[in-house]
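User: Quick sanity check before I run a bigger batch. Here is a single chain. Can you write out its predicted 3D structure?
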Amino acid sequence: MTFVILESCIKCKYTDCVEVCPVDCFYEGPNMLVINPDECIDCALCETECPVNAICSEDDVPADQKEFIVLNAELSKKWPNLNHKKSAPSDADQWKEVKNKKKYLEK
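Assistant: Done. Predicted structure follows.
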């Protein structure tokens, strides 16, 4: 089992989760973070740190978000590793409550 970053991270990209990760398994894309499933040790520390509830256990991924399991695995192989907290995008708070953001994902 691993943890997965879901659609609600898109355009928010808060990095509170990265700061608590003991194995540096987060990767940063243009407007979203992902978790490398091969590096995640299932510690769950990141899950409660996310201010938009964008992280959950692979077993708990909602049916309409299952594609993010594959996206996390694929994109973590392409994007650079992120191992420190960064400032969120200036408009992140405006995107916190927005639903159906997959169309905004920049790969």
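Residues 67-75 form the longest helix (9 residues).

User: Great, the batch can go ahead then.
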